[in-house]
């Protein structure tokens, strides 16, 4: 079978590489309008950093996995077409700052309608607001002229940084489709693809709307856990409780569970905020303001956590960071990814730049160009320097901020760092990654999140 995926990003690239790797019988072509991105997928320097991805791509690329900008041919030849393009939060017009921007999705639907010659199964892979399938379907059917289009929802639950492990061994695969004979047949076709490596009982099938809504709900529930524990972290700081101890104590209750209770500088990533905003927008649209407010609270708490961290840095540094060098270690929204979308580091750095701090930023995988773009600063800007390593960033600094939980930060020589810093040497561990007692023994004034 021929499979095509429109969109060669963080989701489309790894997911299609895994399908090709696991299903030698199928030919998978990933297309994108971005030539540079496709060139990168065809090179040794993939555009997405993800542990284990290089091996999977190398194993299949050129045999049954292809990356191309020839969108039309790939669509025309494929039986199954995944849509995995970006659906950012709208920045203009009705629903700005809340609704999902579906123009890229609509372009794909129109393109599929235009170039398809036979019947197609169209799969929504991007996270979409519930009932998007209806819009895609209407566009396709209005232009179908005797062809049949089945629309499936197959949301991706992989997390960045663990994408390959998540794809290889997913908790579940979800496929939603029309509950008609043609819809059920299309669902079965896609189920058969995943059954190539996923145990059958982990492949769930539902109607389209349940599948679309499950994706938003899963992300809202996950983000809600982080905001809940982050809310408690503020209370811990006021009461000498320790948030990691609290998280451990509640997480052992099997009804609560231990995962996703790591207090932090706030969640980031391309999904959580966007999806919750989307859920909030949908609730308002359907006349459910109380439900909208409930979920909006998760975002409000996350914004609070990011600003609270920056304020704490300023107040601890004698209420001024003006012209003080501050080392920022970590810029990605979590470890093991080069993705910075909605990273808490962006907001914390902006708050500190506002206070005229001189930031020296180091991240193991994020490029200088990306950091500058996120902070909207040029190379001439005197407040932002991008460093080659953690030692350069911390030289003569007044404070060190850990904003991403990269493993390599645990192995740094903190005595060496302390010796080259201004005194008192402050350290703010925004990920509760380091041993604060050891740091205090070296001489640091070290603080974590939610530790009084
Ligand atoms: C609760 C805690 O579970 C327990 O650990 C603590 O020691 C005391 O408070 P309890 O209030 O007795 O225990 O019952 P619980 O089973 O937690 O249920 C509380 C309420 O939530 C009930 O009204 C129950 O019907 C409701 N509930 C529970 C739901 O509506 N849905 C659920 O999934 C679970
Ligand atoms: C998330 C969902 O986990 C995934 O299922 C969905 O498909 C896409 O969105 P992702 O955004 O890649 O994945 O990363 P995730 O591991 O969920 O982390 C999101 C953010 O929450 C990160 O900034 C992370 O640092 C933060 N986080 C996570 C915490 O602060 N504490 C935690 O306990 C867990
Ligand atoms: P995600 O994290 O959802 O994968 P990305 O932004 O990483 O999001 O990837 C989405 C990709 O979709 C981008 O590479 C973008 O160029 C591509 N894309 C957007 N619109 C179209 C389109 N109409 N045709 C083909 N590719 C598209």
From TrEMBL:
Pfam families: UDPG_MGDP_dh (PF00984), UDPG_MGDP_dh_C (PF03720), UDPG_MGDP_dh_N (PF03721). Coiled coil: none annotated. Belongs to the UDP-glucose/GDP-mannose dehydrogenase family. Keywords: NAD, Oxidoreductase. This is UDP-glucose 6-dehydrogenase. InterPro entries: 6-PGluconate_DH-like_C_sf, NAD(P)-bd_dom_sf, UDP-Glc/GDP-Man, UDP-Glc/GDP-Man_DH_C, UDP-Glc/GDP-Man_DH_C_sf, UDP-Glc/GDP-Man_DH_dimer, UDP-Glc/GDP-Man_DH_N, UDPglc_DH_euk. The keyword NAD applies. It comes from the Bacteria. The keyword NAD applies. Residues 327-436 form the UDP-glucose/GDP-mannose dehydrogenase C-terminal domain.
